[in-house]
Amino acid sequence: MREPAELRVIPVLGLPEFSVGMRVGEQIAAHTELLDGDVVACSQKIVSKAEGRIRRLSSAIPGSEARRLAALLGKEPALIELILAESREVLRAERGVLITETHHGFVCANAGVDSSNLPEAETVSLLPEDPDASARRIRAEVRDATGKTVAVVVSDSFGRAWRLGQAEVAIGCAGIEPLDDWRGRHDSGGRELEATLIAIADQVAAAADLVRDKASGVPAAIVRGLERFTSEDDGPGATALRRPRDEDLFR
Amino acid sequence: MREPAELRVIPVLGLPEFSVGMRVGEQIAAHTELLDGDVVACSQKIVSKAEGRIRRLSSAIPGSEARRLAALLGKEPALIELILAESREVLRAERGVLITETHHGFVCANAGVDSSNLPEAETVSLLPEDPDASARRIRAEVRDATGKTVAVVVSDSFGRAWRLGQAEVAIGCAGIEPLDDWRGRHDSGGRELEATLIAIADQVAAAADLVRDKASGVPAAIVRGLERFTSEDDGPGATALRRPRDEDLFR
């Protein structure tokens, strides 16, 4: 393998407010100069807006389970109803925290339902229905607009079981290896490596988050210098990052 | 807050093999040009080597608990003994996986005890005894060698409960805010932000990992452009990233 090169993480400035039907890939391409092999990292929020995944709280009619959990957690019943509709299983509901597995198979707080950075009050954003498909579409939009082959990571900030603070992770990706598999490779001393499977797409999401600003609306960044992890084909997507249920030791 | 600037992540090439007593900060300063405000991210492994935190497997005399777990997990009893000595609690021991809480309070596989990238066979590295103190010392060494004020992150790769692959996290830091606290701040629409506490030091560790190479010996990187998170004082360290036991929903 060749020597690792320097990485650049470049915020995409001046993006417009997104609304349903807008093309995220086209807008990003119009606001920054992209090169072949760049990774475009964008926040779930703008993808959800472009895909119309915004809901009014008043659109939800809370069922009995939502009302029960809302009382337990001190949250709005309509919000809980929307979260449950996005979930296939509730893992924890205590101390004001609701942790579920989404229909995609991601374990996170509130099924990724979020009310910040939305133009209208009393609305929330849901995660994209199929974030890997979103990433593939954004990738195709960039190719159509510029002729460049980039990779795309769609990300959201997830809490962690044993660490404080949220870290950005990939919920969708295309054109990048989500996992770098070192199993069977050897270290400089010829010994088998202990760290065997590196979550590249999650680390890209985290790196991009360092140049974003959750208040001022910098929802996308370019990560340049990761060509060794990018590919012509779309690849397995971020679904490959979900731990299979039968390997889960903490449910 | 000013507009986010571009970030650069620069691998530190040509570092020597570390052994006990060597100064990590001095070596990094000698192998790259550092600027005030840079963040120096380095792998736990070189810090452990410099601090003499390497053990021969033959140094451990497995007790009954180590022998029991070794049989259960199909691992070497001496290795399990060393892991237990680094742990204050075993969280899970099944399917070949041993997850413990270290004496520092980090929850990870094998208490961070690791056998890759070590010069001698039948040895393992333990995590630094006090990784925040390690980060402070490396910071002081850089200052002594160059007069520059940098921040330092000492990192290791941890698995995650519900995601495949390992991601690099901060186990020690100095001169950088481990957490960026947005509680009470507002989004561009004046609404309170949902993502309230961002694990900056973990995201720095992840970004740095993208230019490291676990096989070829690039154990350190410089992250440039994070001046807004760095500070003159050493700050709270990565101990601030541990989730307090009484907030843990998954033990």
What tags apply to this protein structure?
homodimer, 251 residues, alpha+beta, 60s Ribosomal Protein L30, Chain: A, CofE-like fold, 2 domains, 5-stranded mixed β-sheet, 3-stranded antiparallel β-sheet, 6 helices, globular
Termini Cα gap of chain A: 39 Å
Oligomer: homodimer
- Briefly note the structural class of the backbone of chain A: alpha+beta
What is the CATH topology classification name of the largest domain in chain A? Answer: 60s Ribosomal Protein L30, Chain: A
**Level-1 CATH class name of the largest domain in chain A:** Alpha Beta
Assign the CATH architecture of the largest domain in chain A. Answer: 2-Layer Sandwich
Q: Can you tell me the residue ranges of chain A where pLDDT is under 50 for at least 5 consecutive residues? A: none
Largest interface: A-B, 81 and 81 residues
**Number of helical runs of chain A?**
6
Question: Strand content of the residues of chain A, in percent?
Answer: 15-25%
What count of domains describes the coordinates of chain A?
Answer: 2
Main sheet: strands, sense, barrel of chain A: 5 strands, mixed
How would you describe this protein?
By secondary structure, chain A is of the alpha+beta class. Chain A has 2 domains: 1-53 and 127-243, CofE-like (60s Ribosomal Protein L30, Chain: A, 2-Layer Sandwich); 54-125, CofE-like domain (CofE-like fold). Chain A is 24% helix and 23% strand. The first copy, chain A, contains 6 helices and 12 strands. Chain A has helices at residues 24-31, 44-50, 64-73, 77-85, 131-146, 200-209, and strands at 7-11, 39-43, 54-56, 87-94, 97-102, 107-109, 123-125, 151-158, 167-174, 180-181, 197-198, 220-224. In chain A, the strands form 4 sheets. Chain A has a 5-stranded mixed beta sheet with strand order 1-12-2-8-9, sandwiched between helices. In chain A, a hairpin with a 4-residue loop joins strand 5 and strand 6. In chain A, helix 1 crosses helix 5 (131-146) and helix 3 packs across helix 4. The longest helix of chain A has 16 residues, at 131-146. The radius of gyration of chain A is 19 Å and the shape is globular. Chain A starts with 6 loop residues before the first strand and ends in a 27-residue tail after the last strand. The model of chain A has no long low-confidence stretch (mean pLDDT 93).
